[in-house]
Amino acid sequence: MIVWSAAAQSVKQGLVYDAQTKEPLPGVTVIVAEGKAGVVTDGNGRFSLPTNGSMVVVSAVGYRKREVMATADQPLRIALEPAVEDLQTVVVTGNREAALRTETPIAISKLSPKLIEETKPTSIYEVINKTPGVLMVNLGNEQHMMAIRQPMTTNAYFLYLEDGVPIRPMGVFNHNALLEMNQFTVSSIEVVKGPVSSIYGPEAVGGAVNFITQRPTAVPTVRVGIQVDQWGYQRLQVGAGARQGKFGIYVGGFVSRQRNSWLARSDYDKSSYFTRLEYAFTPHTRLTGTVSYNDYNSQTTGNVDSTAFFARQYASTTDFTYRKTVSLRSRLTLEHDWQNGSQSFVTAFIRNNSIGQNPTYSIRWTSGSSTATGQINSNDFRSYGFIAQHTQRLTFLNSKLIAGVTLDLSPNTYYAYQTELSAELRADKKSVLKYTQLRERPDVQLANYQADIHNIAAYVQYDLELMPKLRISAGLRYDRMAFDYTNALDNSLGNKAYSQLTPKLGATYDLGNGKGLYASYAKGFSPPALTSIFLKRTTPTATGDLFYYNLQPAQFNNLEVGGWASLFSNKVYIDGAVYQMNGTNELLNIRQPDNSYDYQSAGRTLHRGVELGVTYRPSKQLFFRFGGTHAVHRFVEFTLSQRASDAVQNVDGKDMPSAPRTIWNTEISYYPVWLKNFRTSVEWQHVSGWYQNQVNTVRYGGYNFANIRVGYQWKGIELFSNVLNVTDALFATNATRGNNATDRTTYTPAAPRTFVFGAQYTFSGK
């Protein structure tokens, strides 16, 4: 904060907040135009400014500058409009604290509150897929896979966070984890591409997605909205926030349901509730608490075969499968800003989570057979832990030192038992028309273990300005994941541990005039999930091992260079990166002849690509956005089978399955000056073809589809409509096949043309 030396004047109190979210804005510069000196807002967006009827100039990175006449007796209330085309934004996911994007030597994208609000997503993938280099694969009813510097996969190579806290503990990854998020109370989203294990630890390999929740609003605010579509989807959502003195509160949530959709047996219900409380002991010391509760219950229709897919006959092969998830997360964070710009925080957190399911992916059926097997399983955990971090600012080379520790204790229980099914075959006997569950077999256990997971870590990072405009960042983290277990299937007791040092080294160079370059090297690793360790093997090894006790952690080395540029008087912004990530012991699911999956560790893999983001704002009426990637994901050395009788023993040099080479998402938005508060946009998603199996014998051609969004706001009332897949294209978001010649492709069909209608009322006080 700047100290005033002027003669005594009246002191003007003020508050600066985001015009979109109504959240208070810290770190905003407020100056008196005549004096050319000023102050910076505190953590709650407040400032005190000596003035006497002067013009006040308010500015912040990522926002449009505003001038306000400070003549009224009342405190100033200043709302700043986001500069949607400005890439020079503040991000927090790079090192757990606010930092300029231009000083962060990693590939990171921020999805702004304005983008999220205008998208009006039914499912969060509609927003995340706008990120360059990212594809969140829609599997229906908010179920998903992810592809960030990886093929489309269910493996534990992505870290999902809520306000910087992982929503699941290491070792209990679930590719559907974002079912447990409340998308309505998310203010912004930051996506890091590539390993960030040096700060966030294992599983942050392909990338990390950090959901930043809505803060208590600077002025009283209430939002109420509904969304419906013609396929039986309904949602009611409410959010409200306010501040009084040192105390602030935000509460929000929604209830949604799906009935009688275009896809048979796909009904689901979800309810999500969120509360955030803030208390400022002083302008520099704050306490924040959040509670998030989510309850999800869905039928799982399963995939369809080629006959049904191309005929658009979306009948389910199962009428008994389901997925149920209940999650509760809470955290309490105490943070303090020191006088010299240093910062400290301590976060304590708890998590309580349960998943029960009768999943379609577990059905084992051999071509031509009239019988099959499935499973019912349950995976529950509780977590207790904390994260502590201190950032020390140093005058030496304008540097800072970041040090932190984490501790996470998570007792985890899992069981799975077999079910017996009958299979009604199509006339050709090569695919199933319908499965019927005959009986449950709790006596045939597939997994039954209890494990106490102990995750501990310590990390350090040092940033310095080696010379003007050149900043260096070096970091190192040590992780140890250990668990004591009881495996009831083989009556074994024991413990196992994985430990790893993960370094990073990066540099940014400011070329001036909104242009810069960065380069970085980072290492990441991911230990095998506990379910992969304790599940029975489909076929025992030659030594009789029925389990995966010897699976090794996957390790990755990532090298990338990138940069950003502001061109043509800030009308064009470009942000790009080129990377190569080499993997060893990458854990893969290999589809077997009975449609089950066997875990194997690939010897070596290669992930290489280029990512590009472009925004263009020629006028206030038009805004263009493009984000995409072209990448290769390839086996370098991988033994698919050690049996001499198999036609293919290795797949060295072949593309990994489910790995489209080109993915891009582009959108043009129009805000006509002749119709104020009206907006419309057209979005185009492109995903190129991919091989369906490891042996690269069958390809799926990929897909293109378009969305149209319109909205109009009158006073506090907004009416909107999203037309998804406007051309009614036939495509599958996932298409896979086994490695045997007799295997057939299974498809996850995308929704036909969908009309989403909604209304939202927003009230803001003063």
Distance between the first and last residues' Cα: 27 Å
Radius of gyration: 27 Å
Structural class: mainly beta
Relative helix content = under 10%
The percent range for strand residues is: over 45%
Flag low-confidence runs.
1-8
Shape: globular
Average pLDDT for all residues: 88
- Profile the largest sheet: 22 strands, antiparallel, barrel
Q: Number of DSSP strands?
A: 43
Tag the structure with descriptive keywords.
single chain; mainly beta; 5-stranded mixed beta sheet; 766 residues; 43 strands; 22-stranded antiparallel barrel; globular
Summarize the structure in words.
The protein has a 22-stranded antiparallel barrel. The chain has a five-stranded mixed sheet with strand order 10-15-16-13-14. Strands 3-2-5-6 form a four-stranded antiparallel sheet, with no helix packed on it. It starts with 10 loop residues before the first strand and ends with a strand. The model is unreliable at 1-8 (pLDDT under 50). The chain is globular and about 85 Å long. With 766 residues, it is mainly β.
